[in-house]
């Protein structure tokens, strides 16, 4: 069986401790490895921003890949960073790597995807700064106090959403969907929107948070 090393990344220490984002990456990588005949011999998890080029866990993963002549597998290309120069240096390391979301990407395509990701990051940063300036001009409170107010608003909205979901959850349970995994799969199958309502799929973590809000 072919050897592989898995690399996971989340953007903040809080995400890393809570497991948000990691579960989906872990599931995607291991499912891909199983189907493609890879044996994952080691896993490395980085908790930091994709804009940083210094990543000790990634360097350790690459070193092990060279030693074991293994494939580096990640869930998505942006998990390796949204920086074209960084991607180029990574490719020059001669370590083969695959992104589960685009396993057939050639070097040119990877460069292009990285370039688009970097452009998107810069655009998001610019839009965020502009939005903050506009909010400041409107008299919106920024800083810690402003974040606390926004957090309370989001929490209230999440509670209201949970209340609307309770009849659906109750019905699923009566139909035999009692596990978090079973509920998330069925919600996705039925096309039920998540709290964000942005096309995001349900995962075990989001269902778990929903059930917690409903005290189930």
Describe the structure in brief.
Residues 3-139 form the Resolvase/invertase-type recombinase catalytic domain. The protein has 216 residues and is of the alpha/beta class.
Tally of individual helices: 8
Radius of gyration: 20 Å
Corresponding CATH superfamily of the largest domain = Resolvase, N-terminal catalytic domain
Q: How confident overall, as mean pLDDT?
A: 79
- Please report the distance between the alpha carbons of the first and last residues: 43 Å
The coarse silhouette is: flat
Q: Beta-sheet strand percentage?
A: 5-15%
The helix fraction, in percent, is 55-70%
CATH architecture of the largest domain: 3-Layer(aba) Sandwich
Architecture overview:
This protein is 58% helix and 12% strand. It has a 4-stranded parallel beta sheet, with helices on both faces. It has 2 domains: 2-116, Resolvase, N-terminal catalytic domain (Rossmann fold, 3-Layer(aba) Sandwich); 143-213, no CATH class. The chain has 216 residues and is α/β, with parallel strands linked by helices. The radius of gyration is 20 Å and the shape is flat.
């Amino acid at each position: 069986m072919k050897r592989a090393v898995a690399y996971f990344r989340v953007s903040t220490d809080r995400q890393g401790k809570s497991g948000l984002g990691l579960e989906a990456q872990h599931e995607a990588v291991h499912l891909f490895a199983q189907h493609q005949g890879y044996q994952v011999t080691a896993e490395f998890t980085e908790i930091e921003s994709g804009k940083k080029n210094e990543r000790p866990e990634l360097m350790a993963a690459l070193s092990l890949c060279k030693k074991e002549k293994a494939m580096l597998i990640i869930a998505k290309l942006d998990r390796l960073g949204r920086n074209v120069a960084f991607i180029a240096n990574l490719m020059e390391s001669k370590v083969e790597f695959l992104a589960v979301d685009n396993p057939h990407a050639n070097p040119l395509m990877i460069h292009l995807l990285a370039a688009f990701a970097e452009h998107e990051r810069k655009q998001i940063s610019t839009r965020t700064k502009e939005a903050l300036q506009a909010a400041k001009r409107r008299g919106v409170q920024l800083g810690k106090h402003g974040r606390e107010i926004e957090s309370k608003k989001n929490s209230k909205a999440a509670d209201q959403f949970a209340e609307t979901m309770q009849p659906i959850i109750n019905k699923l349970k009566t139909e035999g969907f009692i596990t978090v995994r079973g509920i998330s799969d069925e919600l996705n199958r039925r096309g039920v929107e998540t709290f964000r309502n942005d096309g995001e799929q349900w995962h075990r973590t989001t269902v778990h948070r929903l059930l917690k809000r409903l005290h189930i």
